[in-house]
Amino acid sequence: MGHHSCCNKQKVKRGLWSPEEDEKLINYISSYGHGCWSSVPRLAGLQRCGKSCRLRWINYLRPDLKRGSFSPQEAALIIELHRILGNRWAQIAKHLPGRTDNEVKNFWNSSIKKKLLSHGVPDLATFPDIPNPNASPEAFFSLNGNPNLIPSPQDHQLYLPSPTSMLQSGFDQANCNLEFAHFQPPPAPPLSDPSSYVPTWPLGYHPHLIQEDYVLGNELAPMMPKLSETINRNDRIVPSSSFPHEVVDPVARLPSFPSGSHPHAPHVPISHFDYIEAIISSLPS
DNA sequence: AATATTGCCAACCGCCTGTCG
DNA sequence: TCGACAGGCGGTTGGCAATAT
């Protein structure tokens, strides 16, 4: 029970890989490529199942893997992407060159999650609609409560990080400051009473998903889903019925604020990416 | 010094999706 | 259309090392 068919066909070894096994796998894939993973162990002379070989190669032996601890920039990017994508580790890892989904997931579960929770930040994967009023100020860096992400009173722009540019810039901090994608939300009816504003988003939609639409759209522009569609975890565009909660109209439902009416709007629009990065850097290790 | 606890992370497990005959 | 199979993914586990008692 529970094992793949490829694992049942032969006596397979489990557990940690030995250096000898690593060498066999590296030598084989370097010479022939992996091809069909289920045939790799037989051809490479390994007593492992194909899945185990694939995992070992992807997570540990691949030559393009980055080693070492995550930088504050990477941590900030992971937090940002997690807020947008939730626990879609493979999607998140695609924006971190040299990092694997497993590595990102482990880093999140062992480090970031605990740090954020200890600082009163809720689990963002749960998409809370209402931020915890008792949370610390940094808890509100998410769109739900961060005024820095509200369209600025000057230009009504919402500033979104561009994963592609971050990828190309190698997470250079200076570029992170510069390489931000802008888009213009349409005019929206002004709030009748600006003082009644509370730091949460109206209408019950999830700004995380609005961002996701744009983030994905930024990279996958030719494959941009329609509003009746969404992108599943395999990067496939699927009917929204599969993920009804992810269907949003990213334009029509964008809130906007009349000039000067937003009580929490910063004078200068800054990126919350920098904000998160600063928080992570300041957290005790 | 010995033992217990904690944290990290490599690896496994089960499920889902896509492909092919 | 259906079933078998492989690839891929997220959740979870277990072993090891570091730290605390």
Written description of the protein model:
The model is unreliable at about 125-270 (pLDDT under 50). The strands form two sheets. This protein has a two-stranded antiparallel sheet with strand order 1-2. The chain has a two-stranded antiparallel ribbon with strand order 3-4. It contains eleven helices and four strands. The longest helix is centred in the middle third of the chain and has 18 residues, at about 100-120. A hairpin with a 5-residue loop joins strand 3 and strand 4 (about 235-240). The chain is elongated, with a radius of gyration of 22 Å. About 40% of the residues lie in helices and about 5% in strands. With about 280 residues, it is mostly helical. The protein folds into two domains: about 5-60, Homeodomain-like (Arc Repressor Mutant, subunit A), CATH 1.10.10.60; about 75-280, no CATH class. Helix 5 packs across helix 11 (about 270-280). Keywords: DNA-binding, Nucleus, Repeat, Transcription, Transcription regulation. It is found in: Nucleus. GO terms for molecular function: DNA binding.
